[in-house]
Write a structure and sequence with these properties.
Blueprint: H1 10-19, H2 23-31, H3 35-46, H4 56-66
Helix pairs in contact: 3-4
Length: about 70
């Protein structure tokens, strides 16, 4: 599901999966924070690791797709 977002490669999706093993974990984490924190959540957790950096813009895209309604 993550790879349907433009800009997320298999390598980036696997990096996100290390921090959020299931989609429920990701959605639940996004529900617990406000919008500003939600847009930065993936970047803050995943940008320190791996070769590929997950930046703020890409993190915002993930938030827009999986944000709580």
């Amino acid at each position: 599901m993550l790879m349907t977002i433009k800009g997320i490669s298999a390598e980036k999706a696997m990096e996100i999966q290390k921090h959020f093993p299931t989609m429920i974990d990701l959605v639940t984490s996004l529900e617990r924070v406000d919008e500003a924190e939600g847009k930065m959540l993936v970047a803050n957790r995943c940008s320190k690791y791996g070769r590929r950096k997950i930046g703020n813009v890409l993190s915002g895209k993930v938030y827009e797709v999986f944000r709580p309604q």
